[in-house]
Amino acid sequence: MAVWAGAALVTAHAASGGEPGLAVSGRVSSDMRTVRVHLQGTPYTGISRQDGTFTIHNVPPGVYTLEVIDSLSVWPQLEVDVGVRQPGRVQALSARKETLVYPLQLEPLGAANYFEKREGFNLRAMLMNPMVLTMGFSFFSIFLMPQLMKNIDPEALKEMQDAQKQLLGGASAAPPAALEGKSAAPKRGAVST
Amino acid sequence: MLRAIALLLGALLGASALYEDQAGELDWYRQNVGAVLHADFHTAQGRRLVFVSTDVGMVAALDATTGETAWRQPLPAGERIVAQAIAPGAGALLVGSLAPDGALMARRWTLDGDLVWDVAVLPPAPDAPSPAALAFVGDGAESVVALWGASVTLVRGHTGERAWAWTHEAGEVSASWGGVHLTADRSTLVVYGRAGAGRSSALARAELAFASGAPASEVQLARAPSALDEADAAVLTLEPRFVVTLDAARTHLVFQADGDDGAHGGGAVRTSTMGAWSHASAGAHARILRVPLPGAVLVRLGEGHVVLVDLTTGEPHVRWEARAAGPVAIGSLRAGAQAIVAAVYAGAPAASLEQSTVLVTAGGAEVLPSPSAVPLTRGSYGAPSALYLGSYSKKDGGGVVQIAQRALLVTADGAVHGLADARALWAREEALARPEQLEFLAPPRARETEALADGPQYGQLLRAATRALGVAGGAGARPDGASGGGGALFADSFGFRKLVVVRTASSKVLALRADDGGVAWSALPSLDGQPVETLTMVVVPAPITHLDTDLLLVVRTLSQPHTYAALTYDGLTGELRAPAHSLPSRVLWSAPVPASDAALAALEAGARAPAVGHALVLDDFTVALLPDTDATARAFEAARTSIFFYLLDGAAGVIRGYGFARSQKQHGFRAVVRWTYILPANAHDLSIAQLDSAEAVHAPVQVLGDRGVLHKHLNKNLVALGYTQLDRAAPAAGPSVHVTVLDGVTGAAVHDFVQPRAAGPVKLALTENVVVAHSSAVPSGKPMLSLIELYDNATEPDYLAIMFSGSDAAALRARSSFEPRAPFALSTSFFVSAEVEAMAFTQTAKGITPRQLMLALHSGQMLALDKKLLDTRRPIGAPSTADREEGLMPYSPVLGPMPLQLYVTHGHRVERARGVRCAATTLESTSIVALYGADLFISRQSPAKNFDMLAPDFNKGALALAVAALGVGTVVTTHLRRRQELNRLWR
């Protein structure tokens, strides 16, 4: 009420010399931090006081978008009707065009987080990395595959070799010795001696 | 649809979002307070603070010992601070300001920077009187009195509630109040000032009931012997009280004693002829300054002459003169039984400052025998302009407590210096709070490294190699402070190392390092020792990459008639290249003259002579060449047919385009009008912008989702003109914003865009074939962005031509403005959730990376908007398959609210934001962006992530370890394989 009384005084005073103006007032919940409450497209700005209240002085009649300038929290934007629909009075509408309580009660929507979250160590993500998968396959082929071949049942190995032989055909098939791990070439040691 | 928008926004987010640990690594922020207008010292909780209010509307507390900002509170934009008062006992700081609409505002702050109350003391007034005075009266700051013109307003000190207001209006003798005094019984408020004008001037005195403001009696008028000065308010001294002012000619001191008995103590008005006090003639420069001394004022008679006047006798108590003529800054303080008055002025060597001090005690006044030097930190600051003194107690060697003096000195450039005990404690370059122009300046490449430093991949190796070999500058040596000296600053391989050159409102030029914000050099231009106003700053790029870039300043003297001159500085070191080049008039336009092939060859061969000329178009449209040599004239003659410029005459609503022709004079050229474009008669809020001629464009076409192409209308001579127009035939329709795109060479109107029901001021940004305009919707005032994209009419796309002429040079040089093409335009508009103060597009080395639109918001933040969001072809309704393939989002009339990760400034706010500048780096992915206003923020921006650079957090150690492990593994397995093979063969 005190703010309204002040606004009435200002209006009465201004009526003689200049354009009449109203005061837009309210309270912000900002944990005692100072924030600015601004009407977009105008120079009219209020500064929040110690107790969270604010007043934007000498606002000419019009419809404005009210925003809170604060880099630590996210605030809603409101539409403020200053003396247009109801001369001498201020009305505020939310984004959904709902009429709000006046003087305004502004609450932040949440804390502002401007940063991307850096992901920590993730073993699953690391193992699923294509490079890691490629390296793992290569490791498997080079080191583990021969071990598997050694431990395989001789009869099963023989069957595999036969199947491979049939698959490749007689002309292009590798000599059986190669599949058995024995070289068809003469032994170097025998040649040199 | 919302899901699609959210998904795309999410995808865009990743493009430029910052990790928290990168804040401060990839960017820096410089916070300023501005040049100090009022200052009060106070020690609270063991911390010595100085509370200041400044010329950019900031209220702040600075640590008097370190100069650091303890707290800072910006007043609403546009408010001009006119008064400050402090009540230390009550922990209250009072600041008065004039709002843009002319209302007088008063705010009470705690000494910790919290706002206690704010009140519009007096309503908006179109012809607002100035100056105003605010004062605490009563115990414990219980009341505040505001004096403004003929009005006296009492505000409750604890609540900010207006108690009463009284205005003296009596026909032609309207008063202007300047001093206030509360009587000892707290019943009456006595206000003092002057009334009337001309020969009817009088000293005025009114008594008002403290409780109600009711006048206790008629206003008492004491006729002055001559007309009184109307520019400054009358001054009231400490007990014994005198009300003092100057006569209109500022040659006489006019004063009157006053007592608590309710009557003018001395009765008659007395005058003293100031001319008798000094051989310096008093006049326009004379000023009365309050001092905390009983019955005394300081009178500054003019440059360098100061008199402390004892008004009980009407004669100088003490007088002293500065040893050198020039501006004098005067401060005073009262410490116990003594008072100190100090004056700082330019010393005999012009570069030094000296302080002369007077001690005033009950026994008399004493001028300290010799002036002490005022030591300032290195830099160019100019003459002293204001001095504020504060006292503090300290113990000497014997444990005796002494009163010492601390000072805040403001110099002509706006810098603020903290001084104590003949020592400079700190300096703040507060000229940066009022930037007029900001430019990026690329340092040269070292000759030794240029041949190899072709890409970023070689940069690290080169840096390491040059460091190892001790090649000067290869490792990025920096200039040696202000002197510059021979220390060279060379470009780094990524192009991040640049200088940010700022021209300030105080005409000072400062070069800051873009990577850490340090001041590389600063210069306050002058002509023959006289202060000057810097009108223009032009960056003159070096013709070859291993030479320094120059800065050309066009200046004029402050005194009438103005003398004009051109000064050329080495942009890297801040050294003056050559003596000032006198100019006969102001400069309308300027541009570097392209160096000839022969000159370039000479430079490559190591020639030291300046091969870059500069052409200046003077007021009479003649061309002045710098240097005025045959070589420069030949170079200009060779290039003149391809040089064009335009001038906007906002008052007449005309833009004229100019070319160059030869004149009769030897080496003579003159600018001639080539075209004229006349704006509609009712156009207002004009703004103009043009393409950055250095902007790189990679793709001449835009590939569509259906594999078709749109040919961009690429023309480096595009000029965009924005204005607001009210159709007089249909005023009910409201104003509309027009954006007219012109060809700067021929003046041809390329396109005209109209945004109905919108108003300016229009802010513009251009890139490639895109024009963006910011305006406000009418009547809601919601901010809007309008986009205009220009495309050429091409029937069949020539794919081979596109593939082989895709580079910037081939695509753009082949087209001429004299072969006009009528483009077609796609346009759209969006509402945005935040008010925009300025905007610019990111720039990259080759123009391959998608651009972002950087918006400087009213809130002081900078928002990066991806071009995808601003596409004119966003479909209305469900997107087609081709639209989806192209990544087009469904159209939404409102852009925002934006994800917070797109706010480049994160938690920082650049107060009074007024401009954005972007510069390319060597890395194609990265652009350097600067947001400037009262503060400065610089960051690196990568619209498409760092695709050509390892991330800063890349684990190089792990990479080295993996490579080493692979190497060892290869060696070991080879060895094992050989052994195995040998064993097998021997088997």
Automatic annotation (TrEMBL), chain A:
UniProt-recorded Gene Ontology molecular function terms: carbohydrate binding
Keyword field: Membrane, Signal, Transmembrane, Transmembrane helix
Extent of Low complexity compositional bias: 168-179
Membrane topology of this protein: Single-pass membrane protein
Gene3D superfamilies to which the protein is assigned, alphabetical: Carboxypeptidase-like, regulatory domain
Transmembrane regions: 127-145
Entry keyword annotation includes Cytoplasm: no
Annotated localization: Membrane
Xref: InterPro entries: Beta_sandwich_EMC7, Carb-bd-like_fold, EMC7
One Gene Ontology cellular component annotation held by this UniProt entry: EMC complex
Span list, region Disordered: 168-193
ER membrane protein complex subunit 7 beta-sandwich domain sequence ranges: 32-133
Main localization (coarse): membrane
UniProt similarity note: Belongs to the EMC7 family.
Name this polypeptide is given: ER membrane protein complex subunit 7 beta-sandwich domain-containing protein
TrEMBL record, chain B:
Lineage top rank: taxon: Eukaryota
Gene3D superfamilies from the UniProt entry: YVTN repeat-like/Quinoprotein amine dehydrogenase
Pfam families assigned to the protein according to its UniProt record, in alphabetical order: Beta-prop_EMC1_N, EMC1_C
Gene Ontology CC: EMC complex
TM helices/strands, residue ranges: 957-976
Entry keyword annotation includes Glycoprotein: yes
SUPFAM superfamilies documented for this protein: Quinoprotein alcohol dehydrogenase-like (SSF50998)
Major location category of this protein: endoplasmic reticulum
Ranges where the EMC1 first beta-propeller domain occurs: 17-430
Residues covered by the ER membrane protein complex subunit 1 C-terminal domain: 767-986
Oligomer status and interactors: Component of the ER membrane protein complex (EMC).
Protein name: ER membrane protein complex subunit 1
Species in which this protein is naturally found: Diacronema lutheri
Lineage, highest ranks first: Eukaryota, Haptista, Haptophyta, Pavlovophyceae, Pavlovales
